[in-house]
Amino acid sequence: MAEEEEAGHVLAQFRSEDGENSGAPFDLPLSVTTEHLQAVCNQMLENEETVPYSFFVAEDEIKGSLGDWFSKQKDKVDTEKAITIVYQPQAVFRVRPVTRCTSSMPGHSEAVISVAFSPDGRHLASGSGDTTVRFWDIFTETPHHTCKGHSHWILYMAWAPNGKVIASGCKNSEIRLWNPLNGQQVGRPMTGHRKWITCLAWQPLHKDGQCRYLASASKDGDIRIWNTSIARCERILSSHTLSVTCIRWGGEGLLYSASQDRTIKVWRTEDGTLCRTLQGHGHWVNTMALNTDYAIRTGAYDPGNAKAALSTAEATSEQLTALAEERYTKAKANGKELLVSGSDDFTLYLWEPADNKKPIARMTGHQQLINDVRFSPDTRLIASASFDKSVKLWDGRTGKFISTLRGHVNAVYQVAWSADSRLLCSGSKDSTLKVWDAGERALLMDLPGHADEVFAVDWSPDGERVASGGKDKVLKVWRT
């Protein structure tokens, strides 16, 4: 006890990340560790099952004991007043970092441009410059089906949120749907765009349990909304003056489009009305991400609950819609859908696009154009990949800069988060993948193996494996 008194005490107030105080302030010894704080927090919140938490004071995470933190950060806190300890629940499950390449699967005769796991992680598809979409058996790690029909490079692929079909768009401005179970084309091709397809986005599962509607963006400057069950274009959204580079279909009935005309436009999908135009970027807008992207992508499949995941296979579309809505609502930060955009002007902007034309933050620091940006599944972090050879981490609510992850020796093309938001994988022009620890802001694993540039990387929603593809025409699967 004497030691504790020597170490000192502090008055502490627990607060949730939404800004609500939990309980009254109370006296804590500086010797208290994060394990003690976990126990106190779980008891105070009366959690039936123990939930892991991270703790922050003045936006700095407490790693060891409160005393260790104080010795480094004395200037930031007034000890005369109660200090505020913000607690953030973490994913209960843990994804282990991938460490080895378990298979290199040849088959494509040109560069692999995109790889994508299905929402439940049970199917893997790749699109290539050889005009085919291929499905791979992820359990035996062998080729499954080769889908032929396109006559030009496959530039983009998107799984329907129920996982029953995948859409592919090619340089010949066609969109086709494929069934992963038999590799057959579903319906007829959807044509209408005058130039190549740049991006595809499905209506979220909680808005349509049948997954009928698909939006496509093109180099021709238009966005088209298709009813895939009859392969008909229902609506054309045209206001952009140059190529549309990226689209995202939000969960509030809004569609967001980014363009080389330096603007982002917000559309109401039910009638095609242009709601607002977001301006700020000084060059092409290349990429966008929503904080709800991961919840929308995985739909009713919850990576943290394997039993529920198995039961979704037998669920009705109404049950799936309800599950997806619950996951979507949970993902929204303070009930708001946030959008981050990355540009050739080396900056990112964080927006609240449903309500405001003005950005929440302008995020600067990259020295070259930004090629990819992703919110972590828990929405707390943003990762951006740039041609300046770095990946940067930012706060997912404020846009504040957190850290730069350096290690690649050439442009970084794409990043993918693990389902528990603790790990990040990046693919680069330098032919390697790298796995990063988002909490420690450090390199965990260097994964060489590709013979040339790595264009595409995806981490399966169940956290088991990473798939990558690139200029060497080979699809690689990496496991723990």
Shape: globular
The overall pLDDT average reads 90
Please describe the biggest sheet, giving its number of strands, its sense, and whether it closes into a barrel.
Answer: 5 strands, mixed
Distance between the termini: 45 Å
Oligomeric status? single chain
Structural class: mainly beta
Task: Describe the model.
This protein is mainly beta and 480 residues long. The longest helix is centred in the last third of the chain and has 15 residues, at 317-331. The protein is built from 6 helices and 37 strands. Residues 1-6 have low confidence and may be disordered. The strands form 9 sheets. The protein has a 5-stranded mixed beta sheet. The protein has a 4-stranded antiparallel beta sheet with strand order 6-37-36-35, with no helix packed on it. The chain is globular, with a radius of gyration of 23 Å.
Give keywords.
single chain, 480 residues, mainly beta, 5-stranded mixed sheet, 4-stranded antiparallel sheet
